[in-house]
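Issue: ligand-bound run for KG4 - logging full I/O for the record.

Environment: standard queue, default settings, no custom constraints.

Inputs:
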Amino acid sequence: MGSERKIVLGIESSCDETAVALVNSEREIVAQRIASQEEEHAPYGGVVPEIAARAHAERLAPMLEAVMDDAALTLNDVDAIAATAGPGLIGGVMVGLVSGKALAMAADKPLMAINHLEGHALSPRLSEPELEFPYLLLLVSGGHCQILAVEGVGQYRRLATTIDDALGEAFDKTAKILGLGFPGGPAVEKLAREGDPRAVPLPRPMKGSKEPHFSFAGLKSAVLRAAESGEYNPADIAASFQQAAVECLVDRLGLALRKSGPLPAMVVAGGVAANQTVRAALETLAAQHGMRFVAPPLALCTDNAAMIAWAGCERLPLGQSDPLDIKARPRWPLDPDAETVRGAGVKA
Ligand code: KG4
Ligand code: ZN
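Outputs:
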């Protein structure tokens, strides 16, 4: 086995984290660095694409050097270069992908252009060696809110998506409404611990509807109205929002499971998977369906490069690599055959 061990260098730059990691086929994160741009974007209450692209461009090369130094390796020791090629903010994606191409060309190594969502979708297999295909995946981040049947590497069947906002976006907007700053998810979760989840009447959009899709725009508007009414304290609003969101997730996942048929495991990935209330509710739901529940450690839930390197490790034995002229893609659905959902035109 030792001589077959492969090692992949991963690069992630699709949103506001610049990240580099070395991961091997034995599921070891050999070295990694992550630089968050929270401070740069905080004054604007959201990620500013131009600022993000510049920050990635400034930080990536020194971080690549640092990761190789930490691992005491050179590019010659690496088996492939994996870089996020989309979906995401195109300026940032281009910085990472072009850097990956340059390294692949200079070191004469295969390039793998990774779909960021595939990184999230496969990340649970990095932390959980026992997790086999197929599994049900809830992918909940700032840009995405999907339910997928993950049937193999490169084989993703989308069962549901959001018709408007992603759940992480709704957390971020709730935080903004409550004056909690950016990024909002962790701040809303913290404040919610002090509140009463039944205090504020909020809608559960799509609950009970026939397709397992999501919608969070109405919930966000209801949070705004509750805050503006002055009738409720912020902790109760945060707790009630989180409760409504979790009930939507559970309802939609239950329906998706009826559509997919039985699957052995339920997996959650993406930034919102860091939320403890979300995790606890999904764990209960999985148990009710006799499914194993898998949630990667928090550091693998939010954007990182280990998941990109790992997606590369998963692809290596399949002999998949990409040409150096491959393009960065702002939109890149994991399941290209999935039907377009009314209202979902803005999401990948
Ligand atoms: O996966 P990710 O790091 O980036 C995207 O690809 O979008 O997800 C970031 C999103 C943000 O919207 C953030 O507010 C949310 O995940 N998030 C959380 C928590 N931690 C991060 N949402 C709820 N609770 C959390 N603890
Ligand atoms: Zn992400």
